[in-house]
Structure formats: structure tokens, C-alpha cells
Amino acid sequence: RVGVDRVFLGSELVKDLDPKKGYQLYNRNDDIDYTLDCVQEYQPRKFSNRLYLNYFQRQLMNLNIPKKVIPAEQYASYLNKAELSPAEKALLQEAYENHKQYYRIKKEYITDESLKAVFRTLRLDRVELIEIQGDAPRQTERGLQQTIRCLAEGVLRRLIDTKPIQLRSGRPYSTDEDSDIVRIMPTTMKILGICELDKVVIEHRGKRVVLRALEFDSFDPLLDANPLVYDEAEANVLIGIPAKYRHELGILSLNSIVTVSRDMQYLFVKNGNHQVLPIIGVVFTILQTFQQPIYRILLCCAAVPAAIYVSLSQERARIDRRQGRL
Fold it and tell me: How far is Cα 288 from Cα 266, in angstroms, rounded to an integer?
């Protein structure tokens, strides 16, 4: 079974990888890169020299065929390909309509098997596995600071929890470029377990930024900023990041795949008012019930974290860990 949050490689491919080096999947046709943070060997009965992606990963990499949106220059080059027959070129011309500088597929051809065969002939359902060259070193923390951060994240994960997902970076609305926000679709917000203006953590090759999230509340401005998006279903894999933060994350290609999760520290502070009354109630009850200081201290140490845990139950319920990552 192909993993939900992992890329499976055939055993022959794994043998050629150097564990000390970094690798990425690269869709050269659409300039989309996907850094491989989690790779697992897969031993199929046949085709041990292939890599295996699930549907969502193929959608991230824009590998599902037929292509729904094609830049005009690429579309013209496909019509000049010698490997296509006149009938196949005629099918391409019939299936797409001009939309500004792009050609968009007609809805009735999205599931057309003959059109899919054309794209297989053009090898547009392929992805490359390449070594990351000249990548910036990962940001690391050392000593006490790293230990404190790991402990804090461990505690917050118990209290609040988070569910990282992979999204493809794109542009936000043009009016958002000078702001400290990102844009994502409402469905994606529900999967992340956040509301508008909550903070999200965006990570890419060891670098991270924390920004507030707003919805893509109108499809037309989204399409103007990201013309390769065909419909709202495809927009669910998109996160609009301002250019200055793409640069801060080391994203050289607009369409890099990033990891996004909700900011647990922000949510803990945000829900502080929900924790005050339960904590006061627990402490007051203990002080009224027990007279010996040692009992009071021990019971407070046990009961206060329990009260905080219970008060944050609604926040934990926003995500479903049983489904794993997207």
C-alpha cells in the first residue's frame, strides 16, 4: 500500500541513493519540486525501479492526466511533437480552449481515455528523482535551547496536537504581498484544525516561518494569481505565500511543496481564558479540602495539568489523527 505521508521507492532505486545526501522529486514540465523527508523502500513483485505516489501526491506534483491547464507556449510545442499522429494533435486542439495565455481543458474531456493516452505518449505523467545540489544548510538549534524547544513541543502535542500536511506554494491575492498572512482554502483550514487569523507554521528544507492564515474567499482573484489552478478542488492543495516569505523559506521555484501545520504555541495562548476558571476551581477545591501543604502541592501538580488538558479537548477534537497526514 502506498503511504499517505511517505514516498515509496522500488528496491532498485533505493540501492542507488546515498543516505547522506538530500533528494527531491522534480516535475520538470511544470517546475514543481518535492523534497523527500520521508522515504521508504517498497518491494513490489514487478517494477522495482519505480517510485510510487498516491493520488494526493500526484495532485501536488500535477502529474494527474490529462493536464487541465497548459501554458500557451507548451501547448504549441505539443502540437509540433513528431511522436503525435495527426489524429492525436486534432484531439488536443478539440479538447482545449484558449483562455488568455493558457489553454484550459473542456470539462467533457477530463476523463477521456484517448486524451490520457496522448499525454502518456508525451511522457507528461513522469517525475524525476534528483539529488539536491547546493542546498542551504538546515537551520539547527544546539544545546539547552534545542532541548527546551523539544520538551515544549512534546507537551503542546499532548495538550493540543497538530496534523501537518503538504501543500504546493503559490501566490496569495495581489493585495496580500505586503502582509504577514497566507491564503488557503476553507477545506484545508478544517483539515489543519484552524480558523481564520490563526497562525500556521510553514516549513521547507529545515527553514520555517509562522504566519496568520486567511481563506481564499473568492475563486477569481485566486485564479488570476495562480493561472495553473483549474477548479476549487485543485485549489485545495495550494497555499498562497507572499514573495518575501517564499524567499525566507528558500523557495526558488514558485511551485515548491511545503509542510504546513497549525501553531500549537499560539493556540495554547489563544485558549488561555478557557483554562483560567478550571485551574482556579481545581486549586480552590484542593486548598479547601486538604490542610497539609505536601498534599496540596502534590495534588495541584497532578490536577492542574489535567484541568488544562480537559479545557483544551475542543481544540484537539478539530483534527482527526486516525486519518494520518494528507
Answer: 34
Helices (H), 81-227: 86-95, 113-121, 143-159, 186-192, 219-225
CB neighbour list of residue 90: distance below 8 Å, 6 or more residues apart: none
Q: Tell me the DSSP string of 219-252.
A: HHHHHHH-TT--SHHHHTTEEE--HHHHHHTT--
Rounded to 10 deg, the angle between the 113-121 and 86-95 helix axes is 120
Q: What share of the chain is helix, strand, coil (3-state, %, to 5)?
A: 40, 20, 35
Q: What is the pLDDT of residue 135?
A: 52
User: What percentage of the chain carries pLDDT values higher than 90?
Assistant: 40
pLDDT score at 325: 41
Structure-block grid coordinates of residue 103: 489553454
DSSP symbol at 16:
T
The cell for 54 is 498516491
- Give the span between the Cα atoms of 183 and 221, in whole angstroms: 11
Question: What gap in Å lies between CA 313 and CA 125, rounded to an integer?
Answer: 43
Pick the closest to residue 281 from 311, 251, 254, 236 (CA basis).
Answer: 311
Question: Mean pLDDT, to the nearest integer, of 223-247?
Answer: 90
Within the chain, what is the greatest distance between any pair of CA atoms?
Answer: 92
Tell me the average pLDDT across 266-287: 86
| Residue carrying the nine cell digits 495539568 | 305
Using the structure block, give the residue that is written with the C-alpha cell 483539515: 191
pLDDT digits (tens, 9 = 90+) for 156-178: 888 898 889 999 999 999 889 99
Lowest mean pLDDT among 36-45, 81-90, 244-253, 255-264: 36-45
Long-range contacts of 279-283 (CB under 8 A, 24+ apart): 279/304, 279/307, 279/308, 281/307, 282/306, 282/307
Residue 10 has pLDDT above 80, yes or no: no
